[in-house]
């Protein structure tokens, strides 16, 4: 075995290829040097788009957190939930869906701007660089999953086996955590390009050897990308926000719901809930120290209250309606249930995630919270909760229980 070749032999040995350069046959498509020619693939454009996208995602996260806490409040918050302002949930959930829809074109534009970096070679230059790349992969995956599931939720289409609400909630936390890590890692780049005058190409030493530094984007190219993105966001917002913003209803072209057209929308019909055949002898049971049962005729004979309250749904749509019925607080006091009590409301429907709901005292004692018997001056229809339903201010639509059968202390 010749384990020590002579100097003469070593002179004729071919040089070894650089460890960071793959064979030429593998350098195709996005791995090819110079594959990305647009001057808009540069840090300043990415920073501007990142600011817009970050604002949309953080607004979406904050308003989504409000919705989650209203639907599933932890014990310490149950007695602190406010029933006012009346339109509170309508505003926060409307902003949630509007911000989420606006984030779709923003996320696409941001990915287009930075995707040359996704194909940098080698994929990882060190352990720290590998962790950075993995955090970016987690961020992209979490944001895309969040936007995808949220978009299909507005259509009430769930083509997946996992529960939407819990998955959407925890994915949001994952996305925000990954976003904070990404901002910490990219802080020097963001600071260098935050202001227009300070924007400059990164030094070549900070870039992978196989990916040359991009040229400074001409102002016209950057403006073209930002203008097109802003136009896309504006178009998406103006043509979908009308489902929750009344003065934009005339532009509501692509939103899944168009409140005000064909009456008040419903998410769950009586046929879906199995409540189309309400017994003729239906009676509402109010359980308490002086519990009682009362039929529809007697409920209508009690003092009636009329209130203009919106129905605001988690899918983002909302609509105003005029409700007439008996104040819930009056029914509770008649049963000997004291003020400040949390009550449990049970529906006639046989099954469903919101068949039984709990109402904190702030809502139960509010004079605008009604056991509604009529909508816009007419008796309730089966789809709207006949014979009686709950309507309360600043409350998610899924908790405005329809087809009420029982009310009791929780």
TrEMBL record:
Highest taxon, organism lineage: Bacteria
CDD domains named in the record: SO_family_Moco (cd00321)
Record's keyword terms, sorted: Membrane, Transmembrane, Transmembrane helix
Ranges for domain Oxidoreductase molybdopterin-binding: 279-409
Residues spanning the membrane: 52-71, 91-113, 134-155, 167-185
InterPro entries reported in the protein's UniProt record: OxRdtase_Mopterin-bd_dom, OxRdtase_Mopterin-bd_sf
Region (Disordered): 1-37
Record keyword rRNA-binding present: no
Short name of any one Pfam family annotated for the protein: Oxidored_molyb
Protein known as: Molybdopterin-binding protein
């Amino acid at each position: 075995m010749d384990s020590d070749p002579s100097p003469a032999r070593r002179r004729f040995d071919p040089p070894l290829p650089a460890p960071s350069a793959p064979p030429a046959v593998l350098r195709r498509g996005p791995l090819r040097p110079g594959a990305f020619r647009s001057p808009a693939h540069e840090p300043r454009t990415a920073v501007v788009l990142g600011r817009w996208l970050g604002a949309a995602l953080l607004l979406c996260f904050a308003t989504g957190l409000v919705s989650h806490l209203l639907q599933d409040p932890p014990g310490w918050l149950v007695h602190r939930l406010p029933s006012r302002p009346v339109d509170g949930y309508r505003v926060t959930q409307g902003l949630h869906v509007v911000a989420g829809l606006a984030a779709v074109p923003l996320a696409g534009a941001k990915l287009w701007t930075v995707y040359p970096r996704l194909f940098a070679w080698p994929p990882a230059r060190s352990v720290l660089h590998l962790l950075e790349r993995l955090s970016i992969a987690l961020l992209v995956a979490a944001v895309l999953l969040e936007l995808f599931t949220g978009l299909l939720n507005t259509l009430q289409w769930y083509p997946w086996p996992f529960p939407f609400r819990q998955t959407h909630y925890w994915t949001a936390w994952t996305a925000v955590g990954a976003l904070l890590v990404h901002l910490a890692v990219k802080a020097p780049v963001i600071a260098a390009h935050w202001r227009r005058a300070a924007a400059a190409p990164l030094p070549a030493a900070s870039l992978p050897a196989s990916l040359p530094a991009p040229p400074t984007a001409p102002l016209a190219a950057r403006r073209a990308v930002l203008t097109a993105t802003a136009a896309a966001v504006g178009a998406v917002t103006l043509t979908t926000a009308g489902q929750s913003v009344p003065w934009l209803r005339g532009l509501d072209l692509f939103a899944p719901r168009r409140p005000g057209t064909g009456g008040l929308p419903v998410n769950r019909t009586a046929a879906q809930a199995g409540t189309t055949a309400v017994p003729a002898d239906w009676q509402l049971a109010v359980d308490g120290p002086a519990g009682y049962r009362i039929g529809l005729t007697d409920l209508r004979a009690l003092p009636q209250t009329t209130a203009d309250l919106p129905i605001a749904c988690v899918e983002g749509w909302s609509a105003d309606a005029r409700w007439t019925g008996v104040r819930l607080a009056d029914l509770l006091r008649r049963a000997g249930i004291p003020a400040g009590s949390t009550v449990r409301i049970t529906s006639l429907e046989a099954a469903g995630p919101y068949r039984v709901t709990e109402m904190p005292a702030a809502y139960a004692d509010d004079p605008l919270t009604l056991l509604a018997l009529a909508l816009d001056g007419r008796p309730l229809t089966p789809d709207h909760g006949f014979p009686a339903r709950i309507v309360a201010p600043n409350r998610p639509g899924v908790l405005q229980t329809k087809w009420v059968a029982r009310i009791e202390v929780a």
